[in-house]
């Protein structure tokens, strides 16, 4: 069966510090991978998606970036965090278009 | 860009009663998929139901059913015989190609 792991679960970082959130998927190959951010009381905002190694599509211009160094690994990064980067970050995968997305447990990021 | 709109930030329902959550979307695509996800307090995203746009028949999953109106671009979720465990945030989602877009969510309260 397929599983998705996302870590860390919670993170408190000072403004201006770097960020690295990691997501890995097991039990499938060549998944579509997604990073979402959920601000307090708001919906899920699609940040990045990837259909293959090294292929990253950005939905929202910001100080975040994503990378896919391996088939089932997706990393969300920032060189310098802003207060506005606080939120709940969710990684997800799907088998491709026209199928449901499966989500990780999420990371609660607080920038102080 | 595709958009998903949930116009009801909060809804409440008496236990054992029926409630309908609304969702509209905007797209120029003819082939797409629609989903309802549930996010309980644990914040784990759980797929409730899915609908393929090419299917005229409304999807059902036990107590959950949808009313899919393609021409009106409407996709509502009906929860019958509401249970306390149904209390959660509900998100409508649209998928076409490799992208998933979510609405802002409806917070459902179930009153004992």
Describe what you observe in this structure.
The complex is a heterodimer of chains A (112) and B (112). Chain A is mainly beta. Chain A has no helices and eleven strands. Chain A has strands spanning 3-7, 10-13, 19-26, 32-38, 44-52, 55-58, 64-70, 73-78, 87-94, 102-103, 107-111. In chain A, the strands form two sheets. In chain A, strands 2, 4, 5, 6, 9, 10 and 11 form a seven-stranded mixed β-sheet that branches. Chain B has 112 residues and is mostly beta strands. Chain B has strands at residues 3-5, 10-14, 19-21, 24-26, 33-39, 46-52, 60-61, 64-69, 74-79, 88-96, 99-102, 106-111. In chain B, strands 2, 5, 6, 10, 11 and 12 form a six-stranded mixed β-sheet that branches. A four-stranded antiparallel β-sheet of chain B has the order 3-9-8-7, with no helix packed on it. In chain B, strands 1-4 form a two-stranded antiparallel ribbon. In chain B, β7 and β8 form a beta hairpin. The N and C termini of chain B lie far apart (41 Å). The model of chain B has no long low-confidence stretch (mean pLDDT 94). The A-B interface holds A 32, 34, 36, 42-46, 49, 51, 57, 59, 88, 90, 92, 94, 96-103, 105-106 and B 4, 6, 31-33, 35, 43-45, 47, 50, 52, 91, 93, 95-105.
How far apart, in Å, are the first and last alpha carbons of chain A?
38 Å
Instruction: Measure the end-to-end span of chain B.
Output: 41 Å
Count of strand segments of chain A: 11
Q: Hey, roughly how much beta strand do the residues of chain A contain?
A: over 45%
The helix fraction of chain A, in percent, is under 10%
| Bulk shape of chain A | globular
Structural class label of chain B: mainly beta
Helical segment count of chain B: 0
Q: Give me the secondary-structure category of chain A.
A: mainly beta
Rg of chain B (CA only)? 13 Å
Mean pLDDT reading of chain A: 92
**Percent strand of chain B:** over 45%
- What is the overall pLDDT average of chain B? 94
Q: Would you identify the regions of chain A where 5 or more consecutive residues have pLDDT less than 50? A: none
Report the count of strand segments of chain B.
12
> Greatest chain-chain interface?
A-B, 26 and 25 residues
- Please state the overall shape of chain B, judged from the principal axes of the Cα atoms: globular
N-to-C series of helices and strands of chain B: EEEEEEEEEEEE
Number of helical segments of chain A? 0
**Spatial extent as radius of gyration of chain A:** 13 Å
